[in-house]
Each structure stands twice: as C-alpha cells, then as structure tokens.
Amino acid sequence: MKTIEKDEVVYFQDDLAHSIYFLKEGRIRISKFNKKGKEFILNILNPGEIFGEASVMGSDVRNEAAIAEDKVFLCIMKEDKMKELLLQEPLLNFKFSQLLEERLEQTQRRLEDLTFKSNQQRIIEFLKISVKTSENNNGVFRIINYLTHDKIAKLTSTNRQEVSSVFSDLKKHRIIDYDRTSIRVLNLEKLESS
Question: Which residues contact 173 (CB under 8 A, 6 or more apart)?
C-alpha cells in the first residue's frame, strides 16, 4: 500500500513495467507525452480501477505516464504475483480480461471521435459521459468539477479556449451552469440533442 501526493508521478512513460496498481482512493490521470513534452490525457481513473496492466500483458516498459490528480492511496502488486493470482482465480482472470476489452473499446471510441466529430461535439460528449456518474437532484445533474478547462481540452483533444467557448454557449442557453467546484447540467434533454 502506498500514498501518493497530488501531482506526483506514479510512473513515467518508458519506465520499466514490473507492477500493477489498484486505486483505492483519489484519482489518477493516465497521459502520453510527445517528444516536446506536450501532454495528451488518455483517461482519468477513479477509486476501484486498475492501471499499469501492460506489465501483466508482457510489456517491459510503460506506454503512458500515471500522475496523481489528487492525494491517492494505492495497492501495488508485482507482475509475477498478479499473474499467479490470475491463474489461480478464473473469475478474476475473466474480470481482468473484461477490463482490457473495455479499455480497448474506449480507445477505439476516442479514435472514432477524433475522426468523425467536431471539437464542440467532443466537448459535449465529455459532458454526456460525465453525467452518467453524476449526482441527480430533481433533474439537475451535478458533476464534480475536478478538471480545469485545460485538462478537459487535453482529454477531448481540443484547446482551452474551445472548452471555455462551448461551456459559455451552453451556459448562455441554460443547458449547463458551472463554477470551480461543479458543472450542473440543467437540461439533459437539450444536452443530449446538442
């Protein structure tokens, strides 16, 4: 078990891969960096999720970086112990395979979004996906806003100005309202049809 502080790196891209991680508390940002150091956010993981699975799949090095979005509490398991556990527990092996399949589908969806959707559509799609895990209070969905506009831009392959513009337009049309702590979806039907 290990505690990692906000903005600390769990592992870097191209580090040796010998462990798998179970996220108990906090959020982890999974990112890739180009040669100039520009970040592309692949995913934001929440408690209960597994990451660093490439080591179990035979990869010797990390293809991405894992960074603490806030203070996190992790369970770290060595690659050989995880492989042993997967062999002993067929149900766990099945769940692990499902996780890998979901990650592959997520990646394919993002590639399709980049190919076929506009910047505005990708930002709105981010909101639609976020609503699924939000609090519903009499038809107003409250998304805990832990991402800056810059991070939302990196997650949607857009830019900060575009995110601000789309959010302002949605706010003007009373589809959403937002502040530093949350995004509130005021009219889900209009958001869905946007």
Answer: 190
Q: What pTM, to 2 d.p., does this model score?
A: 0.78
Residue in the structure block whose two tokens are 């209009």 = 190
Convert the pLDDT of each residue in 137-166 to its tens digit: 888 899 887 788 999 999 899 999 999 999
Grade residue 4 by pLDDT with cuts at 50, 70 and 90: very high
How many CA atoms, within 13 angstroms, populate the side-chain half-sphere of residue 172? 6
The DSSP symbol for 159 reads -
Question: What DSSP assignment string belongs to 3-69?
Answer: EE-TT-EEE-TT-B--EEEEEEES-EEEEEE-TT--EEEEEEE-TT-EE-GGGTTT-SB-SSEEEES
pLDDT tens-digit series, residues 35-46:
998 898 988 898
Tokens (6 digits) for 15? 């580090």
Buried b (16+ CB within 10 A) or exposed e, 28-56: bbbbeeeeeeeeebbbbbeeebbbbbbbb
State the amino acid at position 104 in one-letter form.
Answer: L
Q: Find where tokens 């509490």 sit.
A: 73
